[in-house]
Amino acid sequence: MGTNGSTMLEPLRQGLPPLDPSAVSSAASCALAARYEAVGSAREFTRRTLADWDVPERFDDICLVVSELVTNALRHALPADTPYDQDPPVRLHLMRWTSRVVCAVRDPSNESPVDRYADGGAVEEDFSAESGRGLFLVDSFSDSWGWHPLAGTLSGKVVWALFAL
Fold it and tell me: Which of helix, strand or coil describes residue 46?
């Protein structure tokens, strides 16, 4: 990938790990409006989807991480003047392979999910600081996570987390 001066972010700015698309057994997504009730909606959608897929393993971890990713998207990735009634700007995607589940949250911001820590502070301290606890939890409860900008004419990014079953 080369270096671009932000080596701390390098491992995070990546697509999903190589996964065989033909092995995807299930996928589901939902649009989330720009309101904080969307976090509860995302959790409920995740609960129902995992129950439909009969995936009891990692259930609590996945629901916790979905909550954190959606909260981060609503809190940090939306312009302050986002109207509540426009097309929902945040989407949650859940994908299941035989031995893993990926949750991905799409938002309209082009900013890295860790840009506010780019002042050279220690990652561990920043991750566990009050405002950064969400990514610390994502890192702690998922097997891997990362983000990538949307391709083509779409602006924004996808932040994803992977769970081995």
Answer: helix
DSSP string, 109-162: --S-TTGGGTTS--HHHHHHSGGGHHHHHHHHHSSEEEEEEPPTT--SEEEEEE
Residues of the chain with pLDDT below 50 are 1-13, 115, 117-130
Residues contacting residue 111 through CB under 8 Å, at least 6 positions apart: 76, 77, 157
Q: Which residues pair with 70 in a beta bridge?
A: none
Q: At how many degrees (to 10) do helices 133-141 and 59-76 cross?
A: 150
pTM, two decimals, is 0.77
- Dihedral class, residue 19 (left if φ above 0, else alpha if ψ from -120 to 50, else beta): beta
